[in-house]
Amino acid sequence: MRKSRIALLACTLAAVTLTVPTPASAEPAVTVTVNARAGLESAGDAAIGVNHAVWDSQLGTDAVADLMKNAGVQTMRYPGGSYSDIYHWETHTAPGGYVAPDTDFDTFMGGVQRAGAQAMVIANYGTGTPEEAAGWVRYANIEKSYGVKYWEIGNELYGNGHYGANWEADDHADKSPAGYATVAKQYAEAMKAVDPTIKIGIVLTTPGNWPDGIVGSGDAGTWNQVVLSIAGPSVDFAILHWYPGGSSSAEALSKTAQVTDAVWLARRQIDRYAGKNLGIALTEINTGYGQNTQPGALFAADAYASLIAAGVFNIDWWNVHNGIGTVSTVGGHTDYGDFGLLSSGTCTADGSVCEPALNTPFAPYFGLAMTSRFVKAGDQLIRAGASDPAIRAHAARRANGDLAVLLVNTDEAASKQVSLNYAGYSPAATAQVHTFGNGDTAITTGTGSATSVTLAPNSLTTLVLRPAAASTRPATPGRPVASAVTATSSTLTWPAGAAGLKYEIHRQLGTISEQWGETTGTTFTVHNLTPGTRYTANIIARDGSGRVSWASPPVTFQTGTPTAAPCAVTLTDASNWGNGYVGSIDITNTGANPVDTWTLAFSWPTAWQQLGSGWNGTWTQTGSSVTVSNADFNKVIAPGATVNVGYVGNYQGPNILPPLFKLNGNLCTTR
């Protein structure tokens, strides 16, 4: 758009903690825990990406390609955001927009190849045709043998005026989600007829971001519901964009906490409406504060690592070049309000402030470069966390036995002394250490301790560790699948490995793993779970010699509510406007006796949800807990009868509806 045998494994951590003496006046050491038994998702070969635009005259130059290669960029997106829906590849024109010289598709691909990257190409949906898109695939992959794998169908088409806001070109008479999905399916069919090996992506709205949740006039559901239902079975991945905003460094950097829930909601929508497993690509992202200074670098590294851990296979920073905006001072350095990774060398309109020389890297460039030092294609992210909320910790294990730890110190004023603990991994004493501090113009690489490090204020640090001793592990088990999920149980099943293995089933509790049990088979039923709760679990294989594998990819599932209860609750998102909604709650007495005087209680699932107002009862919120008590006219609920209450819920992130309700302390069935 924009230019659980139950054992807390943390109690048996490998003995690698180093006690670091500190002066009496110093802050206590921060403890970072890395749990190699708690596996997350793995990085692919397209994870670290950037956007290019045809109005950028530097798009295909050797200088830019070399800078992208040096940063470890794996993917380059073309031809540029909303320009994609006015750009015609064959004539290299964009009616109504500016196209810079030497930015045609072949020039772009030359830069991609020089950088050792791959392309993400956006077919023109807004003013193009399926035939034009198929022609582009033919030219790219049949005639020129470029091997372009990833293709998007349009850009942000929900911004075509259907919901009111109109920034995206769309010449189609039907601008509804059904209109887009129907034609996008035609695009996918035409393009795959030319090259069946390509992967096609369709435009979705990001959970918690406008117009997510809104049902337009005449639509059968939200944009995502309709698009996934119609086009989902014909494509390969879903496209999200994320500009989380923020008016300060602290606010902007807090937004990465939304990643896990946003991706989880997107996957639930995909599973429900597309009926197949689609990949997720976040093809535009930028920070809301400090676009050219250290907050931008910290946001970039933290966001990319969080998104990869959640299973997003491609993340593309907006943009390589963009141009000067509102100038300010951030953290003692000039921020040009430029959404580019590299300087455009431009000045303000009055000439009072000019950017550095053309192609000078801004701080977020080094955020991407640090991410590429932290995680490589094929690496599996694992759980990591810190005792100080100012420290963001990420970790990844590599096939060769190495481990990498990325530490983000978001404290703008204080250094942090960090002590590192490792569960399921014993590192050698020394580590390679990469650092990038506030105002730095390069990443510094040196050698340090594997168990202790000092983090400068507002800094990025990556430790790359070797194992203390070479070891042979059993093969990593395949991803488990959850089935027969009830309010209190779930059955996990996974592919069989070599003969003679035992399998441990582990639940992730932050950086702690709880062993649910073990078996020599490939299925395990977990009991005594908590209703309405999200669980993430891994499988670890153990051979006869006691050697253990790396953790499997994770499975995440949510338990339901009791099927037999004295009450039932139905919550409906009755009307949504993108950052708030009307919640309509039907409370049904499913018991044999009248309920005389009642209170319904629930809790918000996230920290960014709150009660705005309510009706048909007395509403209160304390912390994340919400209650509504009866009014005089609805204090008695007869057996089989239903009363309705409602509220306005406000949110500033993924809007996960409350899963559990209690009536007078009794857990209800959620329908």
Automatic annotation (TrEMBL):
Chain ranges of the Fibronectin type-III domain: 476-562
Assigned keywords, A-Z: Carbohydrate metabolism, Glycosidase, Hydrolase, Polysaccharide degradation, Signal
Pfam families: CBM_2 (PF00553), fn3 (PF00041)
Domain CBM2 intervals: 560-671
Signal peptide: 1-26
Top-rank taxon, per record: Bacteria
Protein name (record): Cellulose binding domain-containing protein
Organism of derivation: Catellatospora aurea
